[in-house]
Amino acid sequence: MNTRFSMRWLLAVLVALLAIFNVECQAEGVGPAAKYTVGVYYFPGWRIAPPLFHNDPWTKIKNFPEREPAIGWYVDGDPTVTDWQNTKMASAGINLVVYDWYWLPKLGVELDHAVESFRKLPNKRGVRYALLWANHSGAPSSEQEFVDIVQYWVKHYFTDTAYYRVEGRPVVVIFAPIQLDTAAKAFGKSSSDLLREANEIAITAGLPGIEFVAATQAVADRADTFLPDAGYRALTAYNYQNAPTSTDGKQRESHSYAELTAGYRESWEWILAHSPIPYWLPVTSGWDKRAWGGSDDPAHDASVSTPASFRQHLLEAKQTLDANGRKTASTVIICCWNEYGEGSYIEPTKKSGEAYIDAVRDVFKK
User: Fold this and answer.
1) How far apart are CA 80 and CA 291, in angstroms?
2) Domain boundaries in the chain?
3) For residues 275 and 200, what is the distance between their CA atoms, to the nearest angstrom?
4) Residue 196, exposed/middle/buried by CB under 10 A (0-12, 13-18, 19+)?
5) How many CB atoms sit inside 10 A of residue 216's CB?
6) Does the structural domain 34-365 have CATH classification 2.30.30.30?
7) How do the pLDDT tens digits run along the chain, 366 residues long?
8) Dihedral sign, Cα of residue 145, residue 201, residue 131, residue 88
């Protein structure tokens, strides 16, 4: 047999298979692998949705007209809005959207309109999705309720090909892992017991387990021992609030975006130096909670970025990822797409246009 012909034939087959793989991935909305996983948190709070929102949540935000989304004061979960958001995310190289997810005792799932709208998109343009369980709403109140929650995830989300996985394990970020442990102890369990039970449920359903990721501060005996020992497979954060630790060891909330991002770098360095499990690097577009009534320290609400300072923060994050590829799993998560009440958003607005998502694209996609 002609060796040169055989090699050409084999190469042609491999190219064809790769093309088919990419087409199939795009059809499923998951896309081929990227160098970085660039995630963004999504707050699904922009529509009237009793019992959590009896009035229009945009009302308070309208006092800050510079925060108006480019698409207008939208109804969260509207298919047209979701498609527009997905287009903008994909264009910026964002390949993971993590939806804040709520379960209320005796009521079940709430505020799932945005994630359900995303799930229905026929083309997700290479963006996958996952859940951040906002477990500071009173659940689980019992072991059975926790089982109900996990079974809901398994049946409703984890069979979706667009759901984000690590080594086959569907990802769930736990917003308040210490609160989960406290809740578990109220009914005679620990968070370690609950995570073990959740993994058993997933394995029974044919999955290799669940990739639980704990949101955490850079706190000794927590990020370095308690959370890894409890069964979490990675760490991250929703956001951080502090300026860097002062020379006398004291901490306070940031009074500028420069202080806030310096505090982030301090947290990155400590966790990367002390955690035995991967750390998905959190980044922030800023903090200004005046629309929700303001921070306890009013000066903290001056922690506002510009597109240029946000881009610099992303560059520092990228450098950290590149220097710690295995420790970070080359993953960054941005807070946030649309936390307008907290002044943390990169969604295109009428004031800034696409400047913030352009910064994401410039740093991570090129």
Assistant:
1) 26
2) 34-365
3) 25
4) middle
5) 25
6) no
7) 444 434 444 444 343 434 333 433 433 334 446 899 999 999 999 999 999 999 999 999 999 999 999 999 999 999 999 999 999 999 999 999 999 999 999 999 999 999 999 999 999 999 999 999 999 989 999 999 999 999 999 999 999 999 999 999 999 999 999 999 999 999 999 999 999 999 999 999 999 999 999 999 999 999 999 999 999 999 999 999 999 999 999 999 999 999 999 999 999 999 999 999 999 999 999 999 999 999 999 999 999 999 999 999 999 999 999 999 999 999 999 999 999 999 999 999 999 999 999 999 999 986
8) negative
Q: What is the DSSP letter of 243?
A: P
User: Structure pTM?
Assistant: 0.91
Cα(350)–Cα(96) distance, integer angstroms = 24
CA angle 212, 364, 15 (to 5 degrees): 90
